[in-house]
Amino acid sequence: MSIRRIGGRQGGDGPPVRAAVRNARIASLPVAFAGRQAAGVGKRALGKSAAEVNRDIQLRTAQHIFEVLGELKGCAAKLGQLLSLYELALPSEIAAPYRTALTQLQDSAPTMLPATVHEAMAAGMGENWRRHFTAFDDRRAAAASIGQVHRAVWRDGRHAAVKVMYPGARQAVLADLEQLRRISVLATVFAPGADVPAVTEALCTCVAEELDYAAEAEHQRRFAQAYADDPDFVVPAVLAQRGDVLVTEWLNGTPVSRIIESGAPEERSRVGMLIIRFLLSSWSRTGLLYCDPHPGNFRVLPDGRLGVVDFGACTPWPPPGFEELVGELMDAALNGGTAELDAAVRRHRFVRPGRSFDVAALAEGLEAAGEPLTAPTFRLCTAWLRGHVRSALAPRLSNVNRQLDMPAYFTPFARSFLTALGVVCQLDTDGPIRAEFARWSPELAAVFERYDSRRAHPTDLGIVRHLRAVPTERRASSVG
Question: Does residue 433 sit in the same domain as residue 356?
Answer without folding.
Answer: yes
